[in-house]
Design goal:
The protein has about 210 residues and is α+β, with helices and mostly antiparallel strands. The protein has one domain: Glutaredoxin, CATH 3.40.30. The protein contains nine helices and six strands; from the N terminus they run E-H-E-E-H-H-E-H-H-H-H-H-E-E-H. A four-stranded mixed β-sheet has the order 2-1-5-6, with helices on both faces. Strands 3-4 form a two-stranded antiparallel ribbon. Helix 1 packs parallel to helix 9, helix 4 packs across helix 7 and helix 5 packs across helix 6. The radius of gyration is 17 Å and the shape is globular. The mean pLDDT is about 95.
């Protein structure tokens, strides 16, 4: 009997490098005997949230160009002028993380698709994904209406589940001495280990090819 293999993907929805990793992560969904678990770490939420000031915006845009060169992911001019240049916005992934927890509770098999849609709304469409209305609209557009309703209602169940998910993500980061996201943990059914995140930005399909080969 073959063991169940699991990839745990630790991320933050406002991490540009996580957005860059999305194509490689998406390729894992096509591997039949591999389970993908996505888990937020709260990097830019709670105490990690911060003003989106000019210095950070410049740093982010420089990193974004590097990510684009490695992955081809789109960082649009609308994102640059509508998000990074908006001093009224904060770098706060709390709302997006909460929206993803709503998906995890109502349609868990769609959580990665929801993450990709939320990332695309920010980086390609230049939308404010720190705004609840934007996030609810993205979820409805994805067809996960129950998640959109739960997110909009903001129940205690959702808040508690969200806090537990973030805490578990942080604990895994600490246990495996990960310095940042994206981080991949691979469990082959006998033990779990951290993979080199550089594989997410190397030749397209390399990660899926390695895992498909067993």
């Amino acid at each position: 009997m073959s063991r169940t293999r699991t990839i745990t993907y630790l991320f933050d929805p406002l991490c540009g490098w996580c957005y860059g990793a999305s194509p490689a992560i998406a390729s894992l969904l096509e591997i039949e005997d591999l389970v993908l678990e996505v888990l937020p770490t709260g990097l830019f939420s709670g105490a990690g949230a911060r003003p989106l000031d000019e210095g950070f915006a410049a740093h982010a845009w420089a990193a974004d160009q590097r990510i684009h060169s490695l992955t081809g992911q789109i960082f649009s001019e609308r994102y640059r002028t509508g998000v990074l240049a908006d001093r009224g916005q904060r770098l706060d992934s709390g709302p997006a993380t909460l929206a993803l927890t709503a998906v995890a509770l109502t349609a868990p098999d769609r959580e990665f698709a929801a993450l990709a849609a939320i990332q695309s709304a920010r980086y390609a469409d230049g939308r404010d994904i720190t705004a609840a209305a934007t996030l609810a609209d993205v979820l409805v557009g994805l067809g996960v209406d129950a998640a959109a309703s739960l997110f909009t209602e903001g129940t205690e169940e959702l808040t508690v589940a969200d806090a537990l998910r973030v805490e578990r993500g942080r604990q895994l980061m600490a246990t495996y001495r990960a310095n940042g996201v994206p981080t991949l943990l691979f469990d082959d059914g006998s033990y779990r280990r951290r993979l080199d995140s550089e594989i997410l930005f190397s030749k397209p399909g390399r990660l899926a090819a390695i895992l498909s080969a067993g």
